[in-house]
Design brief:
Elements: H1 3-25, E1 40-43, E2 46-49, E3 54-60, E4 63-68, H2 74-83, E5 90-92, E6 97-100, H3 106-143, H4 149-183
Antiparallel strand pairs: 1-2, 3-4, 4-6, 5-6
Helix pairs in contact: 1-3, 1-4, 3-4
């Protein structure tokens, strides 16, 4: 495999990693610490990730417990959760914040599946764009005399196989996420 194909494969892997991150942020009916991955808390004037200022635990399927390392942050964490797009209602007892994850309504599930499909489609487009860039680079190399016509065809085929593999992985991830959302 050429440098062009290796570079394209690396970029495609990054697209898959980004898709997984996006999917982790989509709320299902189950409690998950990854729901709070993008949540930032005002920590002495700095916006810090929640995971860096508190312990997040899942004692049961629909319950999240957040225990700040500094008790003075409880109000800030609560505010950050309420302002987020997670639609969750935190309650605190002065020591920890408890969040009951409500079951999703049918409409909300459909909305989340639609969001997941859009995210997956953006990833597919990104992978196809990477393939296009790779093909352009290969054609340029052939034009510059670095690749023969046969080498160009072989490299383009390898790039297409790689693209197909990553698109298939995106589809599999989407299928799993849809199932997770609909089961809730």
């Amino acid at each position: 495999m050429s440098d062009v194909n290796n570079a394209a494969a690396e970029r495609m892997k990054k697209s898959i990693a980004a898709l997984k991150d996006e999917f982790n942020a989509i709320r299902t009916g189950r409690a998950s610490a990854s729901l709070f991955d993008k949540l930032r808390v005002d920590y002495y004037g700095d916006k810090s990730p929640l995971s860096q200022v508190a312990t997040i635990s899942i004692p049961e399927a629909r319950m999240v417990v957040i225990q700040p390392w500094d008790k003075g942050l409880i109000g800030e964490i609560e505010k950050a959760i309420q302002k987020s797009e997670l639609s969750l209602n935190p309650s605190n007892d002065g020591k920890v914040i408890r969040i009951a994850i409500p079951p999703l309504t049918e409409d909300r599930r459909k909305e989340l599946v639609k969001q997941a499909k859009n995210t997956a489609e953006q990833s597919r487009v990104a992978v196809r764009n990477i393939r296009r860039d790779g093909n352009d680079e290969l054609k340029k190399q052939q034009k510059d005399g670095l690749l023969t016509e046969d080498d160009l065809k072989a490299e383009e085929d390898a790039l297409q196989k790689s693209t197909d593999k990553f698109i298939q992985e995106i589809n599999k991830l989407l299928e799993e996420k849809e199932k997770e959302i609909l089961e809730g």
